[in-house]
Amino acid sequence: MIKLIHLTKVYRGLRAVDDVNLEIKPGTIFGFLGPNGAGKTTTIRLMAGVLKPTEGRIIINGMDISEEPAEVKRCTGFVPDRPFLYEKLTASEFLYFLAGLYGLADRVSFEDRMSRLLELFDLFHWKDELIESYSHGMKQRLVMCGALLHEPKVLIVDEPIVGLDPRGARLVKDIFRDRAKAGTTIFMSTHSLEVAQEVCEEIAIIQAGKIIATGSAEELRKIAGVDGNLESIFLKLTEGKRIAHAAPLSSH
Ligand code: ATP
């Protein structure tokens, strides 16, 4: 469902994303982990079409993002790390605005879908309040509502759990699992190893722009040669130069 092929982004000589190759099957919740500055957000912005790669290709749902950007966007939902919301709108108005962009607003089923999503994200009772009055967590949940409005096949999320309280975090994790069961592919970056261990079937670890390991938490445990939780595996894999220069495990 998602293929990154030799994906590279260079910022003034800095290889922020360096020859990344990944292939992600439909219905997978894929966790993208790495230390600060590793290249997670850059990769995600490339996948969302916000940035253009220096080299390489991104294939989503069988389409090359550089050749069919609008079609790819139609089947992709994107939640950035710092989302922009029109705070003088209410949640309903904001979702209507997005629906207009996706050409959904006139559809009879749209109202139902919007109400279901607002209920799901625990926002229905506040749908007519201005977004500026929302808490951080409510705004974050609204952005996710918006990203799912057009029922995308692929959801790309940068740090979905940051800033959510335990209840909000649980809600989002449950929704991700339900969506994945229904066939949506979810690509999420996270710093929370706990979240990755709990919800991600597959994980890639990126460091200094390169993928240093991919696999399930169990497979990563074997690669790192440590027992224990994902935190110890992550620390082991990202420590020092020895592992940092290991060849990518998943090559296209
Ligand atoms: P974090 O976990 O801290 O959010 P990250 O893994 O998301 O980090 P990126 O934000 O992708 O990392 O950054 C990767 C590298 O690219 C970093 O060294 C960063 O300083 C650099 N970088 C990111 N954006 C730009 C830019 N617009 N211009 C120049 N360098 C950039």
Structural overview:
By secondary structure, this protein is of the alpha/beta class. It folds into two domains: 1-75 and 156-165 and 182-252, 3-Layer(aba) Sandwich (Rossmann fold); 82-151, no CATH class. The chain has ten helices and ten strands. It has helices at residues 40-47, 69-74, 91-101, 108-120, 136-148, 166-181, 193-199, 217-224, 230-238, 240-244, and strands at residues 2-11, 14-24, 29-33, 55-60, 63-64, 76-79, 154-158, 185-189, 202-207, 210-215. The strands form two sheets. The protein has a six-stranded mixed beta sheet with strand order 6-7-8-3-9-10, sandwiched between helices. A four-stranded antiparallel beta sheet has the order 2-1-4-5. β7, α6 and β8 form a beta-alpha-beta unit. α8 (217-224) crosses α9 (230-238). It binds adenosine-5'-triphosphate. The site of adenosine-5'-triphosphate has 11 residues, from β2 and α1. Adenosine-5'-triphosphate is lined by residues 11, 14, 16, 34, 36-42.
Query: What is the level 1 CATH name of the largest domain?
Result: Alpha Beta
CATH superfamily of the largest domain: P-loop containing nucleotide triphosphate hydrolases
The small molecules bound here are: adenosine-5'-triphosphate
- Mean pLDDT level: 89
Features:
disordered C terminus; Rossmann fold; globular; 24% strand; four-stranded antiparallel sheet; binds adenosine-5'-triphosphate; six-stranded mixed sheet; single chain; alpha/beta; 252 residues; 38% helix
